[in-house]
Amino acid sequence: MSVFKGLKPILYGGREVWPLVEGGKGVAATNHMSSGAWAAAGGIGTVSAVNADSYDAEGKIVRQVYEQLTRKERHEQLIRYAIDGAVEQVRRAYDIAGGKGAININVLWEMGGAQAVLEGVLEKTRGLVTGVTCGAGMPYKLSEIAARFNVNYLPIVSSGRAFRALWKRAYHKVSHLLAAVVYEDPWLAGGHNGLSNAEDPRKPEDPYPRVKALRDTMRAEGVSDDVPIVMAGGVWYLREWNNWIDNPELGAIAFQFGTRPLLTEESPIPQPWKDHLRTLEPGDVLLHRFSPTGFYSSAVRNPFLQSLEARSERQIPYSRVAAGEHTAQLDVGVRGKNFWVTPGDLARAREWFGAGFTHALRTPDDTMVFVTPSERDEIQQDQKDCMGCLSHCGFSSWKDHDDYTTGRLADPRSFCIQKTLQDIAHGGDIDQNLMFAGHAAYRFKQDPFYSNNFTPTVKQLVDRILTGD
């Protein structure tokens, strides 16, 4: 096998590894089989510590059931499941790696109980985890936790500005454990994306100037050029990134692969999900705002996402008193008479009501969405069943600290992310669940490597990537 020109191993965790990082995809889409195999192939494998699977004595996956009466008790159960699962995944991945490559763990800072989960996992996996990648929020405490357990940390950012804020407030105190900075492209990466309010979701920016600006920021703060920036999002063929490798403007560069490892023998996602990845066309992955985290995120535009899009289109603003243009009394979908809308919106509401969308649910933004009776029942049941999987949840108004509420109305335009990700990862309907993917997923259909339904092992994939393809 000939290695793509200019690509060299990097020193990480005391050993040489390829600058290839497996993206740590949440809730059971990355596990010990995929990450252990990635490390065994010489790269950096990433175990997802977001609600990972654990196993019973017979080796069967333990179903995560929440029978506790209160959200707080269910949240505490969720933390126990998360720690047990991630510890089991790390141990198994480490064994599979066989001393090669490295094993990282990935956590979302916005997940419920993130700090407790991270500390619980690191406490029980000493010597097995080389580093922690962490994004979805501003994880200021990441460096402090890494120092306590003497592991490397790799913050995930989408701009130089975000890195500067983290560095100035916390990371400069633990500079020796900063192993890399992951630049996650907010327009191309799968899962949750760090688009800021200043950036237009419809106008992707070239990552090169943004990564150069990140390196400039790191240099200004005294961070060595030997600390790699990991390019994450949209990476397929390394030959397309030729001008990034060995480029003095950018310093050391590594590459993260999140979508491509989904279609491997060791990938734990169910077969229908793998099969569907082969059918995607450009534009089939949607950058949307429905996630209860409040972040933009990227997922396959399947019937599940399309129903959320349609739900938000059946939305009208209202007032509690007649005011301004709100001169018509709403007489469908609501109880009581103190809802005022525009005459045009009244006509639309009556039309939706006639089409079976007979219930109007209020949102935190003084609007209401019209849903079917079955949709209403599912939304309300899911909100009641909330187990606190996020630090702040727009869908259920849960918060994982203080008084346990965001103080905002629960948002029926969103969904229970824990329920849908657990369901799709364990064989649920791929049309009726959230299916995360990066925006390059359409390339499975175009890449000759996957022709004739070929599914590589992780080792075959890593070897292929190393050639530039």
Key structural traits:
469 residues; alpha/beta; TIM Barrel; 8-stranded parallel beta sheet; globular; Aldolase_TIM; Nitronate monooxygenase; oxidoreductase; monooxygenase; monooxygenase activity
Protein model, in words:
- This protein is of the alpha/beta class and 469 residues long.
- It is built from 13 helices and 18 strands.
- Strand 12 and strand 13 form a beta hairpin.
Rounded to an integer, what's the Rg over CA atoms? 23 Å
Q: Spans of 5+ residues with little confidence (pLDDT < 50)? A: none
Q: Please count the beta strands (DSSP E, at least 2 residues each).
A: 18
Query: Strand sequence of the main sheet, in spatial order?
Result: 3-11-10-8-7-6-5-4
What's the main sheet like? Answer: 8 strands, parallel
The average pLDDT value, as a whole number, equals 94
CATH topology of the largest domain: TIM Barrel
Write the CATH architecture name of the largest domain. Alpha-Beta Barrel
What would you call the shape? Answer: globular
Counting DSSP H or I runs of 4 or more residues, the number of helices is 13
Give the total of domains.
2
GO molecular function, one term: monooxygenase activity
Protein name: Nitronate monooxygenase
InterPro entries: Aldolase_TIM (IPR013785)
Keywords: Monooxygenase, Oxidoreductase
Detail the topology: elements first, then pairings:
Blueprint: E1 10-12, E2 15-17, E3 20-22, H1 32-40, E4 44-48, H2 71-97, E5 102-108, H3 114-124, E6 131-135, H4 142-149, E7 152-157, H5 160-169, E8 181-184, E9 191-193, H6 207-220, E10 229-232, E11 253-257, H7 271-277, E12 285-288, E13 296-300, H8 303-313, E14 315-317, E15 328-329, E16 340-341, H9 343-354, E17 359-362, E18 367-371, H10 373-384, H11 417-425, H12 443-446, H13 458-466
Helix pairs in contact: 1-2, 2-3, 5-6
Protein name: Nitronate monooxygenase
GO molecular function, one term: monooxygenase activity
Keywords: Monooxygenase, Oxidoreductase
